[in-house]
Structure formats: structure tokens, C-alpha cells
Design goal:
heterodimer, A: 549 residues, 21 helices, B: 238 residues, alpha/beta, Rossmann fold, 2 domains, 6-stranded mixed β-sheet, 4-stranded antiparallel β-sheet, 25% strand, globular
């Protein structure tokens, strides 16, 4: 209990200090979270209503989606809890501290399991209630269904997170992580090549008709109904509540809880038997052989760039590459989008009507921007603060702060633009977007990337706090939340603006010439975006100049 | 009280500690000296249960730390050079947390906390969050967190990092008092005059091997020099 009490004290102290410093730091994030939950609820409600109104096929898909949702969350929870368990069990300074205290390995493991479970599932707990409420509303269910479903969700989270926790111990105990990383990298390349060949990249299966699309999809939903796995018990249990089959609902509930208790009882044994060995192995992973002069060094040597600039860029790239937590998140998010985009034709989206196609084009753009905004907030915003105690090296260097600041901006803007442009171009090619639309979207990507990275770099410098040691500490502050809100607001506005123009044109409500209105809107929007970006960069730069290290 | 029997540690193919044998008596102040990377911190980490040795045994009060981890850790304290502290806890909350882990009775714990906060002159900071403290004050909190559970053995890595002259003096006095009470102290440091002033015996480690050991007079017999600094430099020069 002492661990939970300590965690509660952290939370209470942080909240209290924030409230004392500035109540807005508490109120604003709270409102943002509430607004997001409400927005998600509305989104689910609209989506589910849409499917419900489709009639027969819609109802079938709606039923299947419920199972797919739990399967997806199950997999996501396993992955995130595996990563978080690894970090909190074996890589955190707190674990080292615990090991010097008279605590049993099983106590440490138990505490760390719950810690990683909470960290892995808090976002899920925010999206679950709105979804179930929306589902209940569309199905006109009684209020007891969403209330009782909590009883299913708790063991579902316990089981999923235990699986991740178990995997992290298993992999660390029995596999060589360095070799495993290399093997996974080559498997990834293989999968990528397979996808490219299998989907016949850039070719179009014209025989398929869009009307068949949804019905063809239905058989693929079968995998979400594996009766021996807990995601099925959760979905099926809630479904039984819906259909008032209470006895069956109780069977699934008891399945879930009994499995949860069984797995929880394993944690002590796992901790007792493997914790110390795994901790040793993880500590030795950081004991690395000296790094050889790399391809990067040789590559940058050949570039005609100022020496200080090459040195800064190389430092940032190397730090990024040597932190698997950073690049793996980029790889996972953008990788998933890449796989989805190259598979668009498999779903026959390119054969849909123009209005639907327009919606999908801009939804794809929106999804890339969303990931960009969240990764920007997560990694670009805190980069100045994380220079931390090392900033004296940079500030004592015979290079102006302005140049350092610009380097930080360029190194975040260029890769983000190239990746976004590449992904969105694939999406556009697969959806057969041509002409002015392709041209406008490409420039929208350029300006949005520029603005998002300006917001992150500018506000990152403005709110720079050199005492912070970890990304999350910096991001969870007022500056981080403001950055995220500005990013999301800006990209939502931009996407809706251009999607709206094309939509109005397609439904025949645009009275003026499309090209004319597009160029005028784009011109004004681009000028305003650039002005906004430059002001934020200047604001950040001026604040950074005045900072004392 | 502390015993290392053929203690060795290898990281990949590099031996950072090789066949360390030593015995430290109860109430003895033992100082471990050595150049950077000699294996001092690795030895400390093995004795505190953070790193398993590749071979050999680390005994405290006759018990192997890896066979009886909880029992042994109840009687040891560890002060690392850059300690872990919960930044979002207040000083008092952190000390209470440590006290509860060591299962100290509430009344006794409160008395000890009060006593050491007074001694270390940070009573006025007990309700500050740890992140709001300077490095030196944080170090004082770490000392208090170790003293409140009255360890029989104290392991210290670079004891005076970031401390002001007043606290350095206080720490030296308190550590000496601890040894008089029967606490065994095993300390790693680079500050040779501290070792000379406080230690009953000094061990010099180089490239993972214990190359010399004894009190200052015994070391002088090994190397013809007066100051510990000269002895150390002659023993470790390549």
C-alpha cells in the first residue's frame, strides 16, 4: 500500500503546486480533456448512427466492430504495457533505488506491474466510456449496460497488461535484445517488400466495385471472435448484457475475473524468479562497446555545410538513433499509416464516389497531421528543455543562440515534411487524386509542417525549463498542453478549410470558380500561417536569449 | 561484517572486478580508492544487491546478499553519488516513505526524523518538494534517509559531492560517530585527504584488482612516501 500512497502523494503535490502557481494550469488541461472526451463521444455517436442507419449490412458491421474494437485495444494494451513494463521494471532509477531497500523482488514487480498498467491504460479508460455510452445510445440500451460493463473492463485491462508485462520479462530473460532488434529490423524490411509486391503498388484492381466493398470486408472480421481469448469474453459479455442473457454474461464475467486473479498470482513468482536476472541483463545492455565512426559521420563530412551546423545535426541525429523509445514510436505510427496507405486499393476506396473519396483523402491528411502534432509535442517541444544541464556547452560555444535555435527548427521541420509529404503522396496516388487537388494538398502539407514545427520549437524555447530531465516532465507542463491544443486546433482548422472547399464544390454548392477560390484561400491561409509561425519562432528565440543557465 | 570472497564481475568480455578478497570488521571505517573505472562503484553495487557478481560471494554479517536479499538490505544503507529521490514528494513525505519501507514504528520514526532534520539544519525545508531543493540539500536528505533506519553497514559513494563546508564537517563528524556506535562504513572516494582523515583502513583498487590494503602506516611501508596522494599515484601509475 505504501507505493500507492506515495503515488497518490505525487499526484496531490503536483496538482496542489500547479493550482498554487496558476489555477489555469489545472483548469485548462481539465477542460481540454473534457472537451476531447465529449468530442470523441460525438464522433462515436455519429459514426455508429451512420452505420445503424445503413440497415442490414450496417447492423452486421456494427456488431462486428464491437469485437474488433476489443481485439485492437487488447493488442495495443499488450504492446504498450510491454514497453512500459520494460522501462519501469528495468530502466528506471526508481527500480535501482528499490533494489537497495529491504523489499522483496516480488513486491517490486507487483508495484511496477500496476504502475505500467495504469500508464498503459489511462488513455484507454478515457476512450472506453464514451464509446460504450455512444453504443448504448445508438442501440437504445438501458443505463445498466454501460455501468455494468465496467466490471468487464477492469479484468480485461488487468489481463492485457499482464500479457505485456510477461512478454517484457520473457523477451529480456531469454532473448538477446541487440540481436532481436536487428532480426526485427530485417523482418520489417521483408514485410515491407512483401506488401509492396503483393498489393501491386500503383496498379488498380478495376474489376472490383465499390458496392461490394463492405460486404467483402465482413468475412475478415472473424478473427475478432476467438472464443478462448479474453477480448472475446469482454465483448461477448457486454453483448449478453445488451440482449439480457444474464447467465451467459455471468459466465464471461467469471472467466475474466478468474483469469485475472490467476495471472495476478503469477506476478510474485515471476518477480521472485526472474526480476534480478532481468535487471542485470538490462543494465548490461547499456554497457556498450565503443561506437565506431559511422556512416553518418562520413556522410556529413562530405556535405558543404557550416561545421557547427553539421556538429549539431549529427549530435541530434545520433541521440535520436540511440534512443529506441523515440525512433520506435515514429516507426510504429508512420509505419502503420504507410501500411494502411499502400493498402488503400485493397479496400477499393479509389472506386468510391467523388464525395466519399474527398472525405477519405482529407481524413488521411488529418491522420498524418495528428501524428505529426502529437510527436512534435512529445519530442520537438521538449528538445530545448532536455538540453538541460548540457545547455552550458551550447551556450558557451562560439555559436550564436540564434544558430542553435534555427538548427533545432530545421532538424525537426525537414524530416517531418519529407515523411508527411511521402505518406500523403502515396495516399493521393492510391486514391487517384490528380491535378490541382494534388498540388494544393502538397502545399498544405508544406505549410502545416512548417507551422506545427514552429509552434513546437517556438513554444518549446519559450517554456524551456533546463531543470527537467525527461520528455514527459516537460510535456506535461502548461507549455506542452498549450502546444498540443494549438497544434490540434490549427491542423483541424486547416484540414476542414480545404476539405470543405472541395466538398462544397463536389456537392455543387460552390458558386465561384474552384481554382479561383482555392488560390485565394490558400494564399491568405498560407500568409497567415507563416506570419503566425514566424511570430512564435521570434517569441521563442527572444525568450531563449533571456534565459539564464 | 563485510566480506568479499573471490568477487569478480565481467561486462561482456571486460573484467571490471577480478578476484576481490577483503574482510572489514564491525565498526571499521574502510575507504576504497582507485582511478576512474577501477571498479569501485561496481563493488559497491554488488554489495548493495544492484549487480550480481559473475563469480564469488559478497557477504554482510555472514549472509550472502543475493541469497538473503531482504534480511541483508534491512541492515545496510547506501548513499550513491547521485541518488534517486522522489522529486514530487516533500522532504518529510520522502523520509516517512523510507521509514515505512524499513518498518520503523511511527513514533520512533517521527522522533528520528525531527532529530536529523534539526542536526542537518533543514527543518525549515521539510515541507518543500524535493525538486525545489539544491543539490547539497538533496544530499542532506539522502544522509537523513539512511541514518533514520540505523543501518549496521553504510555504503557511501563519493560522500561529499555538492556539500558546503559546514555540511562536509557535519557529515565527517556524524560518520565518525556512527563507527563509534559500531556501524561499519565502506566508502569510495577520490578525495584523498578525506580518506586519510577518516579511514581506519584504505584499499586501493586498479583495473579491477585490489593492489594494496592497510592503514596509512602500512601503506607507507609498501611505498616509500609520506602523503597518501604520493602513495596512490605511485601505486596506480602506468
Amino acid at each position: 500500500m505504501i507505493f500507492f500512497k506515495t503515488r497518490f502523494l505525487f499526484f496531490k503535490n503536483k496538482l496542489k503546486r500547479k493550482w498554487q502557481n496558476n489555477p489555469l494550469k489545472v483548469i485548462l488541461p481539465f477542460l481540454f480533456i473534457m472537451f476531447s472526451i465529449w468530442g470523441f463521444y460525438r464522433l462515436c455517436l455519429e459514426g455508429l448512427n451512420f452505420l445503424n442507419n445503413l440497415g442490414g449490412l450496417g447492423s452486421v458491421i456494427l456488431g462486428k466492430l464491437f469485437y474488433i474494437f476489443f481485439l485492437t485495444v487488447f493488442v495495443m494494451l499488450i504492446i504498450s504495457s510491454a514497453i512500459l513494463s520494460y522501462i519501469s521494471l528495468f530502466r528506471s532509477p526508481e527500480s535501482e533505488f528499490f533494489l537497495t531497500l529491504p523489499l522483496k523482488y516480488e513486491e517490486i514487480s507487483f508495484n511496477k506491474y500496476f504502475e505500467s498498467m495504469i500508464l498503459a491504460s489511462w488513455a484507454f479508460l478515457f476512450i472506453m466510456p464514451p464509446l460504450i455510452l455512444a453504443y448504448s445510445k445508438t442501440q437504445s440500451l438501458s443505463i445498466y449496460v454501460p455501468v455494468l460493463s465496467v466490471l468487464y473492463l477492469v479484468p480485461f485491462v488487468l489481463i492485457s497488461c499482464f500479457t505485456g508485462f510477461f512478454l517484457s520479462i520473457l523477451i529480456l530473460r531469454y532473448f538477446n535484445l541487440r540481436k532481436l532488434g536487428k532480426i526485427l529490423f530485417f523482418i520489417g524490411i521483408g514485410v515491407l517488400l512483401f506488401i509492396l509486391i503483393k498489393v501491386k503498388f500503383f496498379s488498380s484492381p478495376s474489376s472490383q466495385k465499390s458496392s461490394l466493398f463492405l460486404s467483402k470486408l465482413v468475412p475478415y472480421f472473424k478473427f475478432s471472435k476467438i472464443p478462448l481469448l479474453p477480448f472475446y469474453w469482454t465483448a461477448e459479455g457486454i453483448k449478453c448484457l445488451e440482449s439480457k442473457e444474464f447467465l451467459r454474461a455471468c459466465v464471461f464475467l467469471s472467466n475474466l475475473w478468474s483469469l485475472s486473479f490467476l495471472l495476478l498470482s503469477f506476478i510474485s513468482n515471476l518477480g521472485k524468479r526472474f526480476y534480478l536476472d532481468c535487471f542485470q541483463k538490462a543494465s548490461q545492455l547499456s554497457y556498450r562497446k565503443k561506437f565506431q565512426r559511422s556512416f553518418l559521420d562520413n556522410f556529413f563530412d562530405r556535405l558543404a555545410l557550416p561545421r557547427y551546423f553539421k556538429a549539431f545535426i549529427l549530435k541530434d541525429i545520433k541521440l535520436f538513433i540511440r534512443d529506441p523509445l523515440q525512433w520506435s514510436q515514429f516507426l510504429i505510427f508512420f509505419g502503420l499509416l504507410f501500411v494502411y496507405f499502400v493498402n488503400i486499393r485493397e479496400f477499393s476506396y479509389h472506386l468510391l464516389g467523388d464525395i466519399w473519396k474527398n472525405l477519405i483523402v482529407f481524413l488521411n491528411v488529418f491522420s498524418v497531421f495528428c501524428i505529426l502534432a502529437s510527436l512534435g509535442t512529445r519530442y520537438v517541444f521538449p528538445q530545448m528543455s532536455l538540453e538541460g544541464m548540457n545547455f552550458w556547452i551550447l551556450s558557451l560555444a562560439p555559436v550564436s543562440i540564434k544558430k542553435i535555435f534555427l538548427e533545432k527548427f530545421i532538424i525537426s521541420f525537414l524530416p517531418s515534411f519529407l515523411i508527411s509529404f511521402f505518406l500523403i503522396s502515396i495516399s493521393n496516388i492510391m486514391l487517384e487524386v490528380k491535378g490541382i487537388k494534388f498540388f494544393i494538398i502538397s502545399f498544405v502539407v508544406l505549410i502545416v509542417c512548417f507551422t506545427i514545427m514552429s509552434i513546437c520549437t517556438g513554444l518549446g524555447a519559450y517554456f524551456a525549463d533546463f531543470t527537467k530531465k525527461h520528455h514527459l516532465e516537460v510535456v506535461s507542463g502548461f507549455g506542452g498542453i498549450l502546444t498540443l491544443i494549438l497544434n490540434v486546433g490549427y491542423l483541424t482548422f486547416s484540414v476542414i478549410l480545404f476539405a470543405g472547399i472541395f466538398h462544397c464544390y463536389l456537392i455543387g454548392k460552390l458558386k465561384i470558380d474552384l481554382k479561383k477560390i482555392l488560390f485565394i484561400t490558400f494564399g491568405i491561409w498560407a500568409i497567415l500561417s507563416i506570419l503566425f509561425s514566424i511570430s512564435l519562432l521570434i517569441l521563442g528565440y527572444n525568450a531563449l536569449k533571456k534565459k539564464e543557465f | 561484517m563485510i566480506e568479499a570472497i573471490n568477487l569478480s564481475k565481467r561486462f561482456d568480455s571486460k573484467w571490471v572486478l577480478k578476484d576481490l578478497n577483503l574482510k572489514i570488521k564491525k565498526g571499521e571505517f574502510y575507504c576504497f580508492l582507485g582511478p576512474n573505472g577501477a571498479g569501485k562503484t561496481t563493488t559497491l553495487k554488488i554489495f548493495t544487491g544492484l549487480i550480481k557478481p559473475t563469480s564469488g560471494r559478497a557477504l554482510i554479517e555472514g549472509k550472502d546478499i543475493f541469497l538473503y536479499p531482504t534480511q541483508v538490505k534491512k541492515i545496510i544503507g547506501y548513499i550513491p553519488d547521485f541518488p534517486f529521490l522522489y522529486e514530487a514528494l516533500t522532504v518529510r513525505e520522502f523520509l516517512e516513505f523510507v521509514g515505512e519501507i524499513f518498518d520503523i514504528e511511527k513514533k520512533v520514526l517521527n522522533k528520528r526524523i525531527e532529530y536529523y532534520l534539526e542536526i542537518f539544519n533543514i527543518k525549515d525545508k521539510q515541507d518543500f518538494l524535493i525538486k525545489e531543493l539544491s543539490h547539497g540539500t538533496k544530499q542532506r536528505v539522502v544522509y537523513i534517509s539512511n541514518f533514520i533506519h540505523t543501518p549496521k553497514v553504510l555504503f557511501i559513494d563519493e560522500p561529499l559531492v555538492g556539500l558546503d563546508p559546514y555540511t562536509i564537517n557535519l557529515v565527517k563528524k556524524l560518520l565518525k560517530e556512527q563507527t563509534k556506535k559500531g556501524v561499519t562504513i565502506f566508502m569510495c572516494t577520490h578525495i584523498l585527504n578525506i580518506a586519510e582523515e577518516l579511514a581506519d583502513r584504505i584499499g586501493i583498487l586498479d583495473e579491477g584488482r585490489l593492489i594494496a590494503q592497510g592503514n596509512i602506516d602500512e601503506l607507507r611501508k609498501l611505498v616509500p612516501a609520506q602523503k597518501l596522494e604520493e602513495i596512490f599515484l605511485k601505486l596506480t601509475e602506468k
